[in-house]
Design goal:
Chain lengths: ~120, ~120
């Protein structure tokens, strides 16, 4: 068990550029979540996958955001035409069946800075 | 709908003193409740959870929390603070079952400072 890995750890991009983040969950976990955390705030839910199916998306996830989880393994989160308001820490979490009973494992996050 | 309110964005204690971090929740269905800790530039680590078993929950690093349904509270305590406890703490709620898919709703966090 190597935990949840996120790549890159830090990303600085110019406004208007596209960025993509990757999350590798714990291998046997079928649930995968993306959260966004801005400075001084708690994480906010963005989207949820069960295996390869994206089952829920927050209204925070505008049409510039897209997430995928091909084959139910790793997941990617892409932001197109980045804006300064997208600057945040993007956290990935994974859990197995019944993980609502025992919690989720979070990755260390990707910190995005849009300049 | 669910929400979490953490009372006090900053709490400061002396080393060896009692730590009390307050969390109140709102949930239309039976809740599951969690406390997470976050160190700078890191992800969240689970401290403890309440999932409808014992109302007094013990977690890692000497922390515990008590679920009080009548007060809709889930306050986090530790009898004696250590310098290494300095971090940001988040209370979170999820719905037990249903179509929430286990997603967490977090409070805004409480930064704990421990003075020597």
């Amino acid at each position: 068990d190597t935990g949840v890995s996120q790549d890159p750890r830090h990303k600085i991009t110019k406004r208007g550029q596209n960025v993509t983040f990757r999350c590798d969950p714990i291998s046997e976990h079928n649930r995968l979540y993306w959260y966004r955390q801005t400075l001084g705030q708690g994480p906010e839910f963005l989207t949820y996958f069960q295996n390869e199916a994206q089952l829920e998306k927050s209204r925070l996830l505008s049409d510039r955001f897209s997430a995928e989880r091909p084959k139910g393994s790793f997941s990617t989160l892409e932001i197109q035409r980045t804006e300064q308001g997208d600057s945040a820490m993007y956290l990935c979490a994974s859990g197995g069946t019944g993980s609502e009973n025992y919690g989720y494992t979070f990755g260390s996050g990707t910190r995005l800075t849009v300049v | 709908a669910q929400s979490v309110t953490q009372l006090g964005s900053h709490v400061s204690v002396s080393e060896g003193a009692l730590v009390l971090l307050r969390c109140n929740y709102s949930s239309s269905v039976p809740p599951y409740l969690f406390w997470y800790v976050q160190y700078p530039n890191q992800g969240l680590q689970l401290l403890l959870k309440y999932t409808s078993a014992a109302t007094l929950v013990k977690g890692i690093n000497g922390f515990e929390a008590e679920f009080k349904k009548s007060e809709t509270s889930f306050h986090l305590t530790k009898p004696s603070a250590h310098m290494s406890d300095a971090a940001e703490y988040f209370c979170a709620v999820s719905a037990a079952g249903g179509t929430s898919y286990g997603k967490l709703t977090f409070g805004q966090g409480t930064i704990l400072t421990v003075h020597p």
